[in-house]
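Closing statement on the pantoate sub-project.
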Amino acid sequence: MIKVVHTIKEVRETVKEWRKEGLSVGLVPTMGFLHEGHKSLIDKAVEQNDRVVVSVFVNPMQFGPTEDLDKYPRDLAADTRLCEAAGANLIFNPEPEEMYDEGFCSFVDMNGPTAELCGKSRPIHFRGVCTVVNKLFNIVQPDRAYFGQKDAQQLSVIRRMVKDLNIPIEIVPCPIIREADGLAKSSRNTYLNPQERQAALILSRAIKVGQQCVEAGERDAHKVVDAMKALIETEPMARIDYVEAVDLNSVQKIDKVQGEVLFAMAVYIGKTRLIDNFIVNIK
Ligand code: PAF
């Protein structure tokens, strides 16, 4: 039976017992309101580890003052059912005060991979992500941690952080999970009304257009991006935040499609900001 705990002490005690038995531990960091995308991370973690911890924490530090922290969807009972069915062993669901006590003033931050894409539109976002992920790594001390490729920049940022700070944890990337009609699964999809839900398909359609350009031999990154943008602009409910081509690892803008390239976008559908991406590897 899965255990739900709210304090760092309880996580440490549980993991300590597992370690005494020589068991391996996987961590799936989440902000809850779990869907099939999260389930695929948990499934992978269950497959690769003896015990799995899922953290469910809507991290205030990674939300800007005008962002959706208060309305971010939450449902711990449903999350617990999903985690239990998937075979996870422990849910860590702290209150913000447990993670950030009075006087908290230490942060993990980064230059470079956080400068473009979401880092540009959400200036404090990655400082919040790096800090909380570091804390979760220190609290759980897992062997492996699982992150979805839908947040491709986040994955590159965390990989860089782990490398730079010599964190002895294997980062396991997991592919984007999509609805049958192509929309990438996201907790924020619940904000969309039926018309917006339909309009949101423009993101995955733009991904297809971009992929087709690259498959057809286009190597000018700007031309691929322009084709994606042109399609998105045909959807009246869509407003582009960014569509960019960057080097997957450094997350710096590129001109030529060569090596590992991330084509990433953030698009507002009504008031909801959605992200999607695809990666190519051109020799
Ligand atoms: O990807 C997310 O849900 C969050 O950014 C994470 C990694 C759980 C940190 O709060």
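The pocket of pantoate is lined by residues 29-31, 59, 62, 129, 132-133, 151, 154 (CB under 6 Å). With this model delivered, the sub-project is considered complete and its resources will be redirected to Aim 3.
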